[in-house]
């Protein structure tokens, strides 16, 4: 694989936990456990091959509509894995960001998030973004409001007020679980991202599957509207 064909910023829609569990005759919660446990190896691998920003879709603004029990489990898992990810991020000098409205999270969880992310706030080279209570439309509205408060709304001023401001452009979006849609993920940043969809369910998505996505990406011709020379 050519080094210069490694995407700088990869977004992952980690979908298919529920179906993974159902296939095994288990409750959805079993799938969420397996899915959360899968995050670590993929994050580790992505940074090892040279990716600079990884953005993980952990909980959407629409996921609040799920049964209360499921939401509660996801919040618990989040707190647990954020702790693990923080330890990794500190060791590898990666900045951990938990991005989203976060208004509906408990005060306790918000405090934990503050505490963990502060431990990595000094790192600037690489970013691990975990989207929680996140929606792309909400992010754009927020960015537009902030840009308007400071001056004119332009593409640049809007981009400067997105959660991912200052990070490399989003190069690649991977969605596991077989659905061919964005489900409100990084809508503004997706403008010229390459899209990769796989039927593999998130808990089964391993390093080899990640490499397949990167290899596929590395063969794409990105034209940005221009004609090829
Ligand atoms: C992704 O898996 C995890 C979250 C959205 C939080 P799902 O829970 O959506 O699993 P499926 O799509 O129902 O299989
Ligand atoms: C997208 O998956 C959200 C996350 C992976 C966190 P969903 O399962 O919520 O998306 P839909 O409902 O299939 O569009
Ligand atoms: Mg789903």
Short synopsis of the structure:
With 229 residues, this protein is of the alpha/beta class. Helix content is 43%, strand content 15%. It has a single domain (14-218), classed as Undecaprenyl pyrophosphate synthetase, CATH 3.40.1180.10.
Main features:
binds magnesium ion; 229 residues; Undecaprenyl pyrophosphate synthetase; globular; binds 3-methylbut-3-enyl trihydrogen diphosphate
Can you walk me through this structure?
This protein has 229 residues and is an alpha/beta fold. Strand 3 (95-99), helix 4 (107-118) and strand 4 (127-134) form a beta-alpha-beta unit. It starts with 8 loop residues before the first strand and ends in an 11-residue tail after the last helix. The chain has one domain: Decaprenyl diphosphate synthase-like (Undecaprenyl pyrophosphate synthetase). It has helices at 17-23, 28-48, 68-92, 107-118, 136-150, 155-160, 207-218; strands at residues 9-13, 53-60, 95-99, 127-134, 172-175, 194-197. It has a six-stranded parallel sheet, sandwiched between helices. Helix 1 packs across helix 2 (28-48) and helix 3 (68-92) packs parallel to helix 4 (107-118). It is globular and about 55 Å long. The longest helix has 25 residues, at 68-92. The chain has seven helices and six strands; from the N terminus they run βααβαβαβααββα. Residues 13-15, 57-60, 63, 179, 181, 183 line the site of one 3-methylbut-3-enyl trihydrogen diphosphate.
